[in-house]
TrEMBL record:
Pfam families: DUF8154 (PF26481). The lineage of its organism: Archaea, Methanobacteriati, Methanobacteriota, Stenosarchaea group, Halobacteria. It comes from the Archaea. InterPro entries: DUF8154 (IPR058467). It comes from Halobellus limi. Residues 6-168 form the DUF8154 domain. This is DUF8154 domain-containing protein.
Length: 169
């Protein structure tokens, strides 16, 4: 691990972050409001709702296109996962690969093959470039991703038999 030359501030912050995720010695844990802990599909769905709320907040601040695009992809994936977990025997652990969500969206009948492939390609070609690559995201891209994330979320929510979980209304 450390050879003794890493900054103390980084090492202290790293220890604190590790402890925070392990929830060790923290007393009463304060979880994020609105995220359901009842069932995995509800957790994923309410995470998507909260991500879309963040997108709205970022969009109102103007200019955070990279963050908007990244959060939109996350909201899309959480929405697809929520549907899959609610309507099939899928397990949350099945969704460790980002692209699997898009593939599974077609396999379980949420979207037609062409639509699921197009979303998967959008992810693999553009998310990587906007987040890791040298590309500079645009306002138009951020707005288009916001529309896509909202549409996917609303459709997934409308297809889940059990209602009343979505926080977006």
């Amino acid at each position: 691990m450390s050879n003794g030359s890493d900054p103390t501030a980084v090492l202290t912050a790293l220890d604190r972050a590790q402890d925070a995720f392990e929830m060790v010695g923290r007393g009463r844990t304060a979880f994020e409001d609105g995220i359901s802990a009842d069932e995995d599909w509800k957790t994923q769905l309410t995470k998507a709702c909260r991500l879309l709320e963040v997108v709205d907040t970022l969009q109102s601040q103007d200019g955070y296109y990279t963050a908007v695009i990244e959060v939109c992809f996350g909201a899309i994936e959480r929405s697809i996962e929520a549907y899959a977990l609610a309507m099939t025997n899928d397990m949350l652990q099945d969704f460790q690969d980002h692209q699997f969500s898009y593939e599974r969206a077609h396999q379980i009948g949420l979207f037609e093959r062409e639509t699921a492939e197009a979303m998967k390609n959008l992810y693999s070609e553009n998310r990587t470039e906007s987040y890791y690559g040298g590309g500079r995201p645009t306002e138009e891209q951020a707005e288009a991703m916001t529309d896509l994330a909202g549409a996917v979320h609303q459709f997934a929510v409308s297809q889940i038999r059990e209602g009343g979980v979505c926080l977006c209304d």
